[in-house]
Structures are given as C-alpha cells and as structure tokens.
Amino acid sequence: MKKNFKSRQFLLVSLSLFLLLSLTGCWSSHEIEELRLEVGIALDKGKESSTEKELEEQGGGYPKRNIITLTHQFINAQATGAGNKGTGTQQKTYLNISDTGDSIHQIIRELPLNGKGNFTSQHTKVIVISEKLLRTYSLDRLLNEFLRDNEIRPSCLVIISKGRASKALELNNPGEVSAFSLVKTTESQSRTTRILPPMPLAKLTGKMQSESSFLLQNVVSANGEVKFAGAAVINGKTKKLVGFLNEEELEGITWITGKGKGGLVKSFDQETKELIIYEIESMNSQIIPHVKGENISFDVNIESEGRLSENWVAKGNPFDNKFLYRTKKAAEKEVKHLVQNVTNKMQKEYQTDVAGFGNQLRIEHPKLWEKIKKDWDERFSNVPIKYNVKLTIKDYGTFGASK
C-alpha cells in the first residue's frame, strides 16, 4: 500500500511537470528529460568535494570562500521503481547534488557548469539547515535568496538538522523521496505531541520580522534513517540557533500552547507504580497575563479530554471511582512536570520565550508591551508562572466497555 502511494505521488509530480512544460511557452524549448525537478534543499557548513578541491589545486575554480555547502535533491526521472535489468537492484527515486561556496545564488548557478542541466524549484518542498551553520550565520541571511526567489513557493517548509543537513535528504529505502518523507512526517500531529506545527517560508518571514524567539522542528539522521527529535530554539534578535529542546521538553511546549491535536501521556499509578497511558482527544490552553505596576506574572489553564488507552494495574477497574481519580491525578502530575520542566529550561538556561507568553501580553497589554518588547526574553527569565492542569477521562476503550 505504501509503495503504491509513493508510486502515485511520483507519477502526479511528473504529470504536473509535464503540464507545466506544455502550457508555459518560455520553457517549451526544454525537453522534460533534461529539466530536473528539485524537491529538497540542504544547507551545511562548507565542505568541498574532491572535484572542487581538484579545481582549486589546478587554479580553475572561481574566487570563493567555502562557507556553505548546498545540496539539491532532484527527482530521478530515470528511476522506474522496478529492478534494474541484469543487476536486481532498485534505482533511487531521488538524486542529491552538492556544491560549495559563499553565495547561495552563485552555488545554484554552478549546476549548469557541472553538466547538470536546467532545473525548476517550483516543487521544492523543504529546506533543511544544519545546526553548525545556524549557530554561525543568522536565519534571515541563510534564507535571503530563497525568500527573494519567485520560483520557491511560500509553502516550502524549513527544518533544522542536528548534524549534517544533507544526511536528512538520504534514506535507505530507494523507493522513497526524502523530501516527501519529511513533509509527510510534519502532517502527523494528530498522533503525537512531539511534532511542531509545520513552518513554511510564508509563516517564518513573520516570525523573523517580529523579533520574538521561536521554535523550528529538529530532525536527526543516522544510517539512512531520519527521525523528528525535539525542536531548535531560534533567538528573535540574532536569528541564530540558541540550543535545542528534547522530545519531552517539546511535549511541554505543546501543552503550554494548547496546539496539540493528539498524543499520549505516560504516567504511573501512585499505589502500584504500574504504567498508565492517557490518550489525548482534545487539548486547550489559556495563557492569562497579570500586570501590577511593573510586576508581570502568568496563569496558564490547561484542559484536556481523553481516554484510558493502556493500563498495567492488575486491579485497575475503570469503573472504580477511586482508581479513576488516581489515574486522572497521575496524568495531571505528569503534564505539570512536562510544562514546569520546559519552563525552567526556557527561563534559566536559554532565557528565551518560545511558548507565546510575550505574544499574549502584547494582545492584552499593548502599551506595556511596546515598552518592554526589546528586552522581553531577558525579563521573561524572572516572570512567575503558575500552571493549572485539569484532565478528564471520558472513555476507557473497548476493554472497559466489555466490563
């Protein structure tokens, strides 16, 4: 089923490109086999290829500093999805090509010199930026060319990589296109609280202009496998990477913002210490600022409805009010731990508000916000925050119903 979906996706993209070429007169001179379809981009700290090093040694390269390595991911038009004749192996459905330089636009224009032909960026789905590069250069600089490019669509997503960004565009499965896989993973919010809402270029522009700190989804890659793991913290003033939130801390952010669409809470029964799983069906959070003179504080009211989806307590009867109360309290305690843990990291370690407290203060106290917004991250580090968590278990699953 999954293989059929990938094949249909590949055919739809190819058909779209064919129609685009047929209807656009200025491209009519390019054969579809000669025009590459770009679907992903990776930005890393500069690391020259052997060919580039050879050119430098021979004095044949153009003057440049090796600051950035840009990797393009193209659809491999020659891949059929079937085994290659005589080899029994399957071609990858994508092709990654890298070049190094100090100007992103100039690196892009290296492709024709390398005999890679013409390409279109109108179907680029994702831009992955490496941790090391974003600690050195600001996000607005790294994305400047893409934001100006009228080919790159505003819906293109931006993701951060802990490690080489180009590795996030490599997969073991030759039948999968890495860029498509990353985009598809961002659509799984209904299953977990550990995925951020997708961040396209259009939305990211507003985030950078506001000068408020924010989060970008983090991805880790190893041995041809890619996983979403926590989030990157971006400083609103410098637009550089400050650090990372791990998966548990990202869960805490999801509860504070109330933007989760689903997921689980793992807790342990107070009496037996056995495992209990609460599955989220709905989530809501209200951040309430309080201002008294120059003193600012917040109350955060978190509510959720869900179901008891897994219970390891041997005598845990969901129709027993005492057990139900213990289960509810255990889940609420875990949620409080999640939000307080990530709040401590935001305030004490990073001194950065990435949960929207400042935005809520701006909405309810705009005059005060204008006075303090330039130093909000520093001020936020000492603001008292009180959390009130209320969970409701309204469903016990089919096991409970049978009893």
From TrEMBL:
A single BP term in Gene Ontology: spore germination
Main localization category: membrane
InterPro entries (UniProt xref): GerAC_N, Spore_GerAC-like, Spore_GerAC-like_C, Spore_GerAC_C_sf
Location of the protein in the cell: Membrane
Pfam families: Spore_GerAC, Spore_GerAC_N
UniProt family annotation: Belongs to the GerABKC lipoprotein family.
Record's protein name: Spore germination protein
Lineage, broadest ranks: Bacteria, Bacillati, Bacillota, Bacilli, Bacillales
